[in-house]
Amino acid sequence: MCWTTTKSMTTTGQSPKVKTVVKAGAKKIDKLLIRRIPVNLLLFRPGHFWIELIHDDEDDTDPAMAQARQDGLNDGEINNAKIQPNKANGFRESYGWYPAGLPFQPLNIFNNNLVISTDGVLNGDHEKRKKKDKNKKLTPSDDREAGRKTNNNEHSIRPFDPHQNARFHPEKIPFTNNPYVLSDDKRTIEQIFDEIRETAMTFSDEWSWANDSYKETNCHTLLFIILASCNLADPECIGEDLDKHFLRYKKSLMANNNNPENKIKTRQKLVKKLSNISRKAKLN
Fold it and tell me: From start to end residue, where is composition biased (Basic residues) (predicted)?
């Protein structure tokens, strides 16, 4: 399962090596990054898709948090310290969809549900995942199981996907690019940020995987829904047919055009919209 990928970027000054000519007037959103780690079954890599919202103050750190890290407090101790952050503390605002716990449910084969499925949670913010982090000394650059889904959480003033730490390790992210808005879009960056937050924080569903079937709901699904719902085009990846997960998911959705389920009909419309605006943002 191999992708054509681009050099990952971690700052707004870097550009991905995607040879896409974008239509005049389409505006790149430098303060947003689409992150993709594609599934690779050969390497047993589960992959992850998420979106990052860049703020100039994200590396600012509360004195109390700096002291807690200097004192070597583990994640559980920081949670219990109730520091009440007033700063981002090194965490970048970001959103992705995760399984709350072990997703393998073999008994589901008898009740017509997906075998790989479980409760879904924004940014992996679930007690089962937090428990795995509890005794570890973790900084914003370290791997963690659980992010946070709310503002003003134990670690930061903003929600964060646990994969946000990969910005400190760009070699871990095979594909990064910016979304665009079309030429007639008059929204400010804060308005776009607010729409992303609203879409992510109100999303609710299981987490499941079915090899890009229309039946699944996972991090790919949430990213596609955020982009489409917030009118964010992706000419450099979806517009170039580089996102194989998107292509297979779209094909599966459209093949089930007669499915009466409202959720499926809504996702068909959103995926079609995302495909159209991503192509529209290209010059040809």
Answer: 128-137
Q: Enter the tokens of residue 43.
A: 């390497």
CA angle 98, 102, 108 (to 5 degrees): 105
User: CB neighbours of 168 closer than 8 A, spacing ≥ 6?
Assistant: 10, 140, 141
Domain that holds residue 68: 56-91+125-160
pTM assigned to the model: 0.90
**Full DSSP string of 164-190:** GGGGG-GGG-SEEE--EE-TT----HH
Same domain, 180 and 117: yes
The answer to the question of residue 228 being in a domain is yes
- The answer to whether residues 145 and 193 belong to one domain is no
Count of structural domains within the chain: 2
Does residue 168 belong to any structural domain of this protein?
no
Give the integer Cα–Cα distance in Å for 121 and 161. Answer: 11
